[in-house]
Design a protein that fits this description.
4 helices; 7-stranded mixed beta sheet; Aminopeptidase; about 160 residues
Length: about 160
């Protein structure tokens, strides 16, 4: 059972294992040049908030990061739920936490990139009000990237 979603340091117990599993999952689907994964040191940078979902015993079940870009925009990165914890609403809880933090930070629009083979992720984002946008930043021209955005408040 999922008992909490909270902001935690990137090197909190269980986070590096989630990153490892996320890496394996992503590299199994897409070529390396299309994998835009932040490592733990990048998740420790200023402007990055890592959220971790945990079970009643404190086990890390999922994670997501809010990356503020310093120009009024932010991106959702490293959204991942352990395969054993999927289907229990944790991804939606992580997304709510990221969106709430972005809103508190005054970010009007949250963007994200995912892959076209990640159907469950795309369905989640669309169900939460994200709309497909042209690829932005490093994702421009990458056929293995699909980008979405959600307006969090009026600009």
């Amino acid at each position: 059972m999922i008992t909490s979603v909270s902001a935690e340091p990137a090197r909190s117990p269980g986070v590096e294992e989630l990153l490892r599993l996320s890496d394996e999952f992503t590299f199994a689907l897409y070529p390396a040049e299309s994998c835009y994964l932040l490592d733990v040191s990048e998740l420790e940078l200023p402007g990055v908030t890592v959220f971790v979902g945990r079970d009643e015993k404190g086990g890390a079940l999922g994670m997501a990061a809010l990356v503020e870009k310093g120009d009024g925009t932010a991106e959702l990165k490293r959204m991942f739920v352990h395969p054993d914890a999927r289907g229990r609403g944790l991804a939606a809880g992580l997304l709510r936490a990221v969106e709430a933090q972005a809103a508190v930070a005054g970010i009007p629009v949250l963007q994200l990139e995912t892959g076209p083979l990640q159907h469950a992720a795309i369905a989640l984002y669309e169900s939460r009000g994200y709309v497909r946008i042209p690829n932005f930043g490093d994702y421009v021209g990458d056929p293995h990237s699909v980008c979405f955005a959600k307006t969090l408040r009026a600009a």
